[in-house]
Amino acid sequence: MSQNGQATTRGDLVRAAVLGLLGTRGPSSRAEIARSLGVSPATVTQTTKELLARELVTELESVPSQGGRPARLLGLVRTAGGAIGAKVTADHVALVSVDLDGTVRSSRTVPFDPAHPSALNTLCDILGATVDAHEGHLLGVGVGLPGAVDSQASGVVDAPTFGWDRAPVGPRLRDALGVPVLVDNDVNTLAAAESVYGIGRRYSSYLVVTIGRGVGCGIVAQGSVSRGSHGGAGEIGHIPVTADGPVCGCGNTGCLEAHIGESGLVAAARAAGVVTGEGGMTELVAAAYAGDERAHAVYADAGRLLGRGLAGVVHVLDPELIVLMGEGMTEWTLWQAGFEESFRRHLMPARRALPYITESWTESQWAVGAASLVLASSFDAQAAGAQGELVRARLQDVSAAGAR
After folding, report:
1. Distance separating alpha carbons of residues 295 and 184, to the nearest angstrom
2. Given 139, 239, 282, 327, which is the most exposed site by the fewest CB atoms within 10 A?
3. Is domain 10-79 given the CATH code 1.10.10.10 in the classification?
4. pLDDT digits (tens, 9 = 90+) for 224-264
């Protein structure tokens, strides 16, 4: 992607996708790589030639082919580089260290209060300790947050739920850590990870929709994440769906997120008498699985609102696929009936067959998504401005392994 937020071509991520494929599927032939990524054999030949020259992949044994010369398998040189990913939330930071293919070496969570006056100093300390503990050649640090980031290159953040207004997250972290730091909206980081390691290897235009504490959307068009002119594209949680609805964390009323985000579900459950006193999501989920019809109605209403809202987004963006993920996926069976009926009914007839998939969820996925900002920018010549250039320079300097 370019600094002005416009999408770049799918080819910009082919190198990263090859590495991701080799890392997740193991050694593969050039022909298998071309088929899996949906690119031409000539593109794969040229791409792997570059990766071999940079000692990021290596040729392994030959395997029999159907006529002609035996096919040579390519394998990943995992130790050529790694990245750190951090997902910043309202009460903690999730951290991972990953290899070049996205394989998680280590993970942990650290308590964090973004509303504290010294929050940025604390974040610098948390990530500084993680950088110090990283083994091997570190390419950079990726950070995902629930807010608008003007660009990965600068990393200035507006996060209303944190009370952050033009917070200089990127500059502060770069000064403190001494390594490249890329910052983006947390859902965009998941979309970037899908482009390199997931469904984006088969689709070029899709939506990654997250359901949990909030509601977010990453937009992938022609193989690249679309961020908008100010880094705020995809904020579907703040689509107004009711005129006099509950107050949202953004300050408006009646937003989709205010209705179906975690706090909205709890409020609806409390109003229905499902949740009492200080009870929260645990009580709501338990009631739903115990067969409480009021709890089922809360989820059905939320599913219908989500389905109607996403139908509108589909009409605007025309994706090939929707990927649903996030903390809320653990209870997707409770959402599904209301969502499916509403989503299909509100789509125009020609689009009612649009597929969607759900992905299982772990806490570390947010942080792995953040790390993928670094790994993807390693091979995208237009990505992340000066920070992307620094990442690419560090990748080329494999002899600097062990240096910060």
Report:
1. 35
2. 282
3. yes
4. 788 888 778 899 999 999 998 999 988 899 999 999 999 99
- Beta-strand (E) ranges in 20-163? 28-29, 57-63, 71-76, 82-88, 92-99, 104-111, 138-145, 148-149, 157-159
CA dihedral 51, 95, 402, 47 (to 10 degrees): 0
Say which residues have a Cβ less than 8 Å from residue 334's Cβ, sequence separation at least 6: 285, 288, 295, 296, 299, 303
Q: Under DSSP, is residue 184 helix (H, G, I), strand (E, B) or coil?
A: strand
Q: Which residue did the predictor score with more confidence, 19 or 160?
A: 160
Quote the pTM value: 0.78
Sign of CA dihedral 61, 67, 69, 74: negative
Read off the tokens for 147: 């807010």
Q: Class assignment of domain 204-319+327-358?
A: alpha beta
Q: Which of 257, 201, 196 is nearest to 16 (CA)?
A: 196
Is a pLDDT exceeding 60 seen at residue 9?
Answer: no
Residues in the chain: 404
H helices of 84-185, in order, are 119-133, 169-177
Residues 168-182 have pLDDT tens digits of 999 999 999 999 999
From CA 119, how far away is CA 116, in angstroms rounded? 5
Q: For the chain, what are the domain ranges? A: 10-79, 81-185+363-400, 204-319+327-358
For 81-185+363-400, CATH number out of 3.40.50.740, 3.10.310.30, 3.20.20.450, 3.30.420.40 equals: 3.30.420.40
The C-alpha atoms of residue 193 and residue 206 are separated, in whole angstroms, by 13
On whether the CB atoms of residues 398 and 81 are closer than 8 A, the answer is: yes
Rounded to the nearest 5°, which phi and psi values hold at 387? -65, -40
* Cross-sheet strand order for the sheet of 28-29: 28-29, 71-76, 57-63
